[in-house]
Amino acid sequence: MSCTIEKILTDAKTLLERLREHDAAAESLVDQSAALHRRVAAMREAGTALPDQYQEDASDIKDMSKFKPHILLSQENTQIRDLQQENRELWVSLEEHQDALELIMSKYRKQMLQLMVAKKAVDAEPVLKAHQSHSAEIESQIDRICEMGEVMRKAVQVDDDQFCKIQEKLAQLELENKEL
């Protein structure tokens, strides 16, 4: 299974696009649930604050309530149940989107970690090779320097031997010269 950087980047971009789509969908669901919450609150407020806010409509509602209070209550109960069911569905959908988002993010983090590890390995390899080649060069230069040092020691020793021989010969010649 070959994994190229381009493929990883393409997959990361795809995951990012999906993440944005899921984020937008989650925000839409949150907005919808907030709107439903406001509607329910408005319905509650309308039920409790009616006499204070709408005096002229209150008499009409009282008249209607005399005729069909049971029907109105059952309709409201049905609407409330529908809203509660829709709210539960929205919460389930929101949780599913959050789970999907967590899964996507974990995969994204895993791929980014793999990408970073691969990049470090790729970045470190040329440095390691250069270091090894420099080490080999330094070792060969050290060997050459050691060889040159050995040659110089031998040359110094030969030179010292020659100097001693010349000194002896010179002393011998001086001695012979004095005797003559």
Q: Report the C-alpha radius of gyration, rounded.
A: 48 Å
Helical percent range? over 70%
How would a crystallographer describe the biggest sheet?
none
Low-confidence stretches: none
How many independent structural domains? Answer: 1
Classification by helices and strands: mainly alpha
Q: Kindly state the number of beta strands.
A: 0
* C-alpha end-to-end distance: 100 Å
Indicate the overall shape. rod-shaped
Mean pLDDT comes to 82
Kindly estimate the percentage of residues that lie in beta strands according to DSSP: under 5%
**H/E element order:** HHH
Number of helices: 3
Protein name: Suppressor of IKBKE 1
Family: Belongs to the SIKE family.
Organism: Vulpes vulpes (Red fox)
Keywords: Coiled coil
Give an account of the 3D structure.
There is one protein chain. With 180 residues, the protein is mainly alpha-helical. It has one domain (5-47, 72-179). The chain has helices spanning 5-53, 55-67, 69-179. Helix 1 (5-53) runs antiparallel to helix 3. The mean pLDDT is 82.
